[in-house]
Amino acid sequence: MSKRLIVAIDGPAGAGKSTLARRVAERIGAVYIDTGAMYRAVALWAIRQSIPTDDAHRLEALAHHAKIEFLPGENRLLLNGEDVSAEIRTPAVATAASEVAAIPGVRRAMVTLQREIADRSSIVMEGRDIGTIVFPDAEVKIYLDANTDVRAQRRAEELTTKQIPFDLDLLRQQIEDRDSRDRNRAASPLMQAGDATYLDSSNLSASEVEEEILRIIRSKTSNGKALVP
User: Fold this and answer.
1) Which of 17, 98, 136, 219 has the fewest CB atoms in 10 Å of its CB?
2) Residue range 163-176: mean pLDDT, rounded
3) Alpha carbons 179 and 102: distance in angstroms, whole number
4) Fold of 6-220
5) Tens digit of pLDDT for each residue in 125-143?
6) Largest CA distance in the chain
7) Which residue in 193, 157, 189, 182 sits closest to 94, CA to CA?
8) 98 in Cβ contact with 180 (< 8 Å)
9) From CA 152, how far away is CA 169, in angstroms rounded?
């Protein structure tokens, strides 16, 4: 079947979007796109260039010139040809990315790139505004959520695995601050699309959430089967 499928998964930081979107993409034969990683890449480049996160003009120019690539079949991202997959996952880059992502010009540059990727294949894309702004006509929209304590604990486990030091109370505060920035920013705020299916992952395993998302996809596609690129 030639029709391309777009699965849009939105939600706050730590809700499990990246893990689930990657697993679902593998199951249905689609390309997984981590939009948060794209903003982190721009933020990392800004940090390296000593560009303040409130310098909208220079950050927009940076976003337009950034060459961001996802390696097929791998959870790896290249920034201007350099593998920065690990470096973009530090707390400092995460905080900067939330601030950079609030700049309208940066978002326009990233949305253009995201749509170009979707023109080439079926995708599972996750972020903050995929179902509301990037792909408002997506066949499948899911808003994945979880309570703050669960999200903080998940982030702590991720950092522990990567041997990155952290303070749990600070992680929780950073998540709350990021939620506030994401939901109250003027450009593409985090919100649930009116036609998105709400899914709370707080008390579900990753496998349970994965199966529920696949069920939603089957119910939304005309023939009940996942489409492939």
Assistant:
1) 219
2) 91
3) 12
4) Rossmann fold (3.40.50)
5) 998 889 999 999 999 999 9
6) 51
7) 182
8) no
9) 8
In 3D space, the residue among 85, 104, 71, 105 whose CA is nearest the CA of residue 36 turns out to be: 85
- Residue 31 is encoded by which pair of tokens? 């390309």
* Domain assignments of the chain as residue spans, ordered by start: 6-220
The Cα 83–Cα 147 span in angstroms is 32
User: Which SS3 state, helix, strand or coil, does residue 13 take?
Assistant: coil
Strand order in the sheet with 6-10: 31-34, 123-127, 6-10, 140-145, 197-200
pTM of the model: 0.79
For residue 125, which amino acid is it? M
Which run of H or E residues covers position 10?
Answer: strand 6-10
Residue 99 near residue 174 (C-beta atoms within 8 A): no
Helix (H, G, I), strand (E, B), or coil: what is residue 219? Answer: helix
The answer to whether the beta carbons of residues 35 and 130 sit under 8 Å apart is yes
